[in-house]
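Researcher: Last one for today. Full complex below.
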Amino acid sequence: MRPVGAILRKDLLVELRTKESVPSMAIFAVTTFVIFHFGLDRDRLEGELAAGVLWVTILFAAILGINRIFVAEREQGGFDGILMAPIERTSLLIAKAGALFTYLLALELVALPVFALFFLSDGFWEALPRLLVVAVLADLGLATVGALLASIAVHTRARDLLLPLLLLPLTLPVMIGAAAATKPLLSIPLETSGVGKWLAVLALYDLIFGLLAYAVFDFLMED
Amino acid sequence: MLATAIALVFFYAPNDADQGFVQKIFYVHVPLAIVALIGFVVAGLLGVMHLRTRDDRWDYRSYVAIHMGVIFGVGVLITGAIWAKAAWGKWWVWDEPTLVSFLIVFLLYVTYYPLRYSIEDPQRRARYASVFAITAGAFVPINFIAVRLAENLVHPRVLNQTAGDMPGEMRLTFLVALAGMALLYMTLVKLELTSKHARGQLRRLRRLLEEEGSPGGAAPPPIVTVPAKPE
Amino acid sequence: MEVEQAEPAQVSEGEAGTEAILLREVTRRYGEREALHAVSTSLEAGRTLAVFGPNGAGKTTLLRMLATLLVPHAGTLRVLGSDLPRESHRVRPLVGFLSHDPLLYRDLSGRENLAFYAQLYEVADAAARIAHLLEATGMTRRADEPIRNLSRGMAQRLAVCRAVLHRPRLLLLDEPRAHLDPEAASAVDGLIGPGSDATRVLVTHDVEHGLAEADRVLALRAGHVAADAPAAHVSAADIRGVYGGAVA
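Model: Here's the assembly. Have a good evening.
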């Protein structure tokens, strides 16, 4: 666990200093909300439309962050440094997924209030606790699969193009689950039935892909 | 075998009363889909074998399995569109969850090609392709579950609703079609594998010939006489 | 640290078993090409192996294999008593690699980089060790600036610190003096030079330098061994011959 902590701390330190990923993701999300406002020509959203807009935006913002998660290792030869060290290589995967998870939570810290401001008439505060649970489960899935696919894409030529192509279909269940779980929470009036089923779907996805990523990661790192 | 299946489809199965002749597309569309999906999952297992044995042949097999699956997938989507148009008047419908799930899976597997193409190191390429095959193979069932849960089924599912109800002749034809499609798949896979193998051999022979021809030969002569290591 | 005179190259007195490095018919493919073909050599503990060869000869591949970054596709490879790749995890804490790339994160300072690696390698007295190394390479004053603000030569000095941070028993050095002025070169000599008691594998195009420090010489050409002999038996002219006239 210590190497995971070391790598994660290093990543967060670099991010704090360079402020590359999280601010870009946040700005992107807010801008996308504005685009949706004009594209849909709506002042207020609720229910499934609100859930859809929210989660599509978060997904695309996540892609920005995922694309950059290995940039330090790739550009500065850091892969060698980590691969040579006497640590479990899966520590790298866990650390990167942890970093992505942190970035996504930070993103949502900004994006959710702005979303409520732009589009929700009320009921946001009521919905928030459950929304956060949905967000945590969805973020876990995005972070895990994102880290795995980023580590695949990093060794290819057209990595910025390939990553979204791989990520979008694979994270579709997360999108379906997150949007479906959020829909009742953003409905007027607020409902909570049905959320549990989708939380279970998200949790199942997180579990399966978490185990899968852990199992295959060593093969990706070796040479 | 496939010829028999085709024959059966056209001459033996009774026309479905509601949907007429075009309903026969069902005998092509569904087996195509089933075989393609099983092919994808099998490709994942072949990927596991490749990672375990490091034998490149497993990677070839995995690649061809996916390749054929994608080709069959195109067939699924086209026949699906034809069926949709004939049955419900539109070329594409969203409330057919299996078709939607299949589309998603298809889009994922189509990225297999750019992935392979964009990795230069051959050993790494094979390894990463196997990881993809495994991940995507695991994804197939999850995806179908998720999409199915998401859609409120309104649409008549020939397989489901009539699973028990299918009249004997229809069921027989269906099973024959399925078997025929599976055999077609395996034949094509085998063909592709053999041709790949032959091409690989040819390349190797050609390279050997080139090397022998050149004056340098295979190894440059050593230039310092290495004294025998003293014992 | 004082720079000691390099020991005169000596013919090894057949002590099989004290070999720090043993390669037997090691082959590494790249697709259908062979980056290394049936390479064999050995090196005793505490000695220095100089590896020469033109670009593309396989020197870096060899070094990366010893660093456990690449696995051999055929042959036997044993480093510090452990078989690679099977026992790579045993070897990793004992190897220090100074590669072309400093392997330092550009947005972190030298000190932060070293602290990071100290955690990965579980270095016992990390803070003290880091301070000592920074002092030894003359980097104490600028240790807290991000790498991206430093010159290449300073980054190289920090890279040396990184390579020896965990007191490795085997040093893999790829052009260690690159980017270093003479003063810096002699400063790092104490850490990675012949005076250190580590086993060393040195890749360099500087024929004189390499020969002066070598106990054994390995020359590669197109992945094949062109020469593998004790340094005393090899002259500079022989080495230049390997380069085929394109002298360093």
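Chain A has ten helices and no strands. Chain A touches chain C at residues 2-3, 5-7, 10, 13-14, 17-18, 72, 76-78, 80-87, 222-223 (CB under 8 Å).
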